[in-house]
Amino acid sequence: MTYLIALLPLILVCATAVAVMLGIAWQRHHASTVLTAVVGLNLALLSLVAVHQVAPFETLLVAVDGLAIFGAVLVLVSTLACATLAHAYLEHYRGPREEFYLLLLCAAAGGLVLVSSRHMATLFFGLELLSMPLYGMLAYAFHERRSLEAGIKYLVLSAAATAFLLFGMALAYAQTGRLDLAGLTAGLGEGGGAWGLAGAGLILVGLGFKLSLVPFHLWTPDVYEGGPGPAATFLASASKVAVVIVLLRLVIESPAFAHVGVHQILAVLAFASMLIGNLLALTQANLKRLLGYSSIAHFGYLLVALVVAEGLAVETAAVYLVMYVVTTLGAFGVVTLVSSRDISGDAAALHHYRGLFWRRPYLTAVLTVALLSLAGIPFTAGFIGKFYIVALGVEAGRWWLVGGLIVGSAIGLYYYLRVMVTLYLVEPGMQRHDAPHDWGTRAGGVVVLGLAALVVLLGVYPTPIIEWAAALGVAHG
Amino acid sequence: MTLVGLIVIPFLGGLLCWLAERRGDRLPRWIALGTMALELLLTLGVWLSHDFSLPSPGGEASTWAMEWRVPWIPRFGIEVHLALDGLSLVLIALTGFLGMLAVLCSWREIVRRVGFFHLNLLWILGGVVGVFLAIDLFLFFFFWEMMLVPMYFLIALWGHSGSEGRTRIRAATKFFIYTQASGLLMLVSILGLVFAHHAATGEYSFSYDALRDVTLSEPVAMWLMLGFFIAFAVKLPVVPLHGWLPDAHAQAPTAGSVDLAGILLKTAAYGMLRFALPFFPEASQAFAPVAMALGVVGIFYGAVLACGQNDIKRLVAYTSISHMGFVLIGIYAGTSLALQGVVMLMVAHAFSAAGLFILSGQLYERLHTRDMREMGGLWGRAGGLSGFTLCFVAASLGLPGTANFLGEFMVLFGSFSVAPWTVVIASGGLVLAAVYSLLLMQRVHFGPPKDSAPLADLDGREYGMLLGLLALVLLFGLYPQPLLDTTGAAMSEVQRLFGNTELLDATLTWEAS
Prior knowledge:
The complex is a heterodimer.
Chain A: H1 2-6, H2 8-26, H3 30-54, E1 57-58, E2 63-64, H4 66-90, H5 99-115, H6 120-138, H7 145-176, H8 181-188, H9 193-210, H10 220-226, H11 229-253, H12 255-258, H13 260-281, H14 287-308, H15 313-339, H16 361-375, H17 381-396, H18 399-424, H19 443-460, H20 463-470
Antiparallel strand pairs in A: 1-2
Helix pairs in contact in A: 2-3, 2-5, 3-4, 4-5, 4-11, 4-15, 4-19, 5-6, 5-11, 6-7, 6-11, 7-8, 7-9, 7-10, 10-11, 10-14, 11-15, 13-14, 13-18, 14-15, 14-17, 14-18, 15-16, 15-17, 15-19, 15-20, 16-18, 16-19, 17-18, 17-19
Chain B: H1 2-20, H2 26-49, E1 66-73, E2 78-84, H3 86-105, H4 114-133, H5 137-146, H6 148-158, H7 167-201, H8 208-212, H9 218-235, H10 244-251, H11 254-279, H12 281-307, H13 312-333, H14 336-367, H15 384-396, H16 403-416, H17 420-445, H18 460-478, H19 481-498, H20 504-512
Antiparallel strand pairs in B: 1-2
Helix pairs in contact in B: 1-2, 1-4, 2-3, 2-4, 3-4, 3-11, 3-14, 3-19, 4-5, 4-6, 4-11, 5-7, 6-7, 7-9, 7-10, 9-11, 9-12, 10-13, 11-13, 11-14, 11-19, 12-13, 12-17, 13-14, 13-16, 13-17, 14-15, 14-16, 14-18, 14-19, 15-17, 15-18, 16-17, 16-18
């Protein structure tokens, strides 16, 4: 029974996926498909309350502890937001619309497996289940060149990263003969030895690719730009959260990752991601590309928590993830809503947004709040996240990383402000892209408005999230 | 609760202005004016009902006239902790008054998106009041960074474009990046202080009183002090870090310039007085010669560059740099006379700079240029405008009888005992002040006229604003005692913490006489 309860969210999401598939086979109907998906996801989210009662709970393959529940909440909330946004986005889409939700649910299931994995098998299984549907989602508008390109690019590079990951696992297995994290921990001992270290490095490459850390970031802007809005949203939120959680677990538990060398590599990756991500974003004229580069920088900031990996690290990572996910969902949500009326590609070029404020004041306010939050300005959630990262860096005395963060966010401000002021400039010419007039009363609009309210609320009163993050229990092997 | 009210009123007023935009352009203006009037009245009410006289000598804990605290983020011991003493009171009253002026001077100038303009204007003022009241360092930083956003919009959206088209956005971005990046340095310093406190006591706290007692090793204290100093130095501005100021002033709308020069620059001096000196007395003491040297450099640099400007607002902006040099010297001299002079000079500069910026704005409304080469011979054409310019120019160059004279005199006199040579050199700046002030007068109002057609005379609103400012300049120039009494306790507290005790006797006897 405990097993059932602990795995209930996963079971519910999978069952919903099956239900959606059968529904499509029986009769295509967009609205009811969305409804099924959303109800299923909400049930899964509710079931987490029950899961919380039985946590911590462990089997050989999965560990359902505080961190896993935390990750599951973020993944499910992101998926819910994506499903709602997809409804608005796909309404005017001419091709088949319903399969998108099937892919979305499968990817969400992958995310759920990943956040609770404590065995290389579940790690790999979860990661692939998360990535495979994403290829389909990114290339969903396959009649369009950019979308197809995004999907294929992600597929090819992702496969390469998976190869690295598998090879890393194989090396670790060769060293210890075990595949579960606890066994690896015991087998590797202090430092981990040359093979263990090499394995850890290769696993890091594989996961670093998914997080698009510099230098594994080359796919990010193209995929963000080409993929349909909801798919890019999912890629930027749920998929990254799940990978960060699993990386966090690895870094905290496994001694091979506690090696000084690995920490230094992580620190270099963090520093490079902050600076290069922000620098590359400077000259972008496309909002989705810009958000892509900015996400590279943000995961650079987040990596500081993994570099430190003690004291406040887990709490910092958790708080930052919440802030990042809420903000990113808001920003991508607006992009998706603005794009939703047009079937020929997304409205992502900056000039589409020129003067948006004077036509859609509230929608623009949402995007402004999201951008301010990404820039880490007070009164928004992003500020609390940045505060945590700086605090952690200062406490651990990682002055290089703190310096990188300061320089990075100064650079970042430039492009966030550029986008922001574009929104408010007076519009000289005609307008091609726009959100529907009644966007505010539709589901997608409500979600976006709610997210913006949440960003401000968490920025002003972050205590609940902080308490939750501070109380996160990580089951130790 | 009054303290919360002081912060919340401008924010609420701003939102109301935005909502009232649908009902026409006049309503937001009146709401904004009423909001700031209410703010000012509330502050004056507090001033009348509380006693700000000197506390008993040797009193240990800092004495606040009013205090308000509730827990906010208990995880780190962060509180919403507001407190008010004489210094913050004076500066908040200044904010209220200049806020009213800012609303009034944009009455004709701002014609597009009036509601949103006043939302930004009032939110800046709300943020500034928050800075003056917050004594929890997290909250202070919160407001410190937050007020940049509406200021950015004010410059970027309602600013005047320079010659190369998009320069107002560039100026706004420059302003924002300068201040935000330096603010992050301060955040690092604050956190360093907090973790030092945590290491000593095992508790997280961002409270002013708790962090003041932290003992730090000498190099650490120096680094942390520099973090604070750089953040404040950018905003003041101190010379190598001043790059944003002339652009921001020149491109901002009149209301923005008035706010920037009148209030935003003062938050930096306030920060030094309230935080940088009391937290790191020894490190500040060691750093004082450098800071004073920077002040002297600022005085001359600002004055010399002011002489070479063609844009009237840039000229006034550079004079601000020059005046803030005196403020910096006074702060780091640390005698109570110099510190009192700093407060005096801050208030006086707020009035005279606001007056000059308002006058430039009115000239711009009439001539549609800020280029002084296009002006000349306005005396007699522009009615009362020329006369008022003469008065404010006289105040700016520190003519006796104006508050500016008193401020500069007290700063120089008070600093002499600490750094005689600095004062001797800095006094040379007063000559340059006369040069650039008269240059402005000569180039704009005298000389051969470009055109003989008379310009529109000042209307009642403009007369009222300028007359009010002028009356205050003269009032504080002739009878400064109420102001000095109000801030005396706060300044002697700073002076005590900064630790120039041997000079206390000398200055106290002067005050008594």
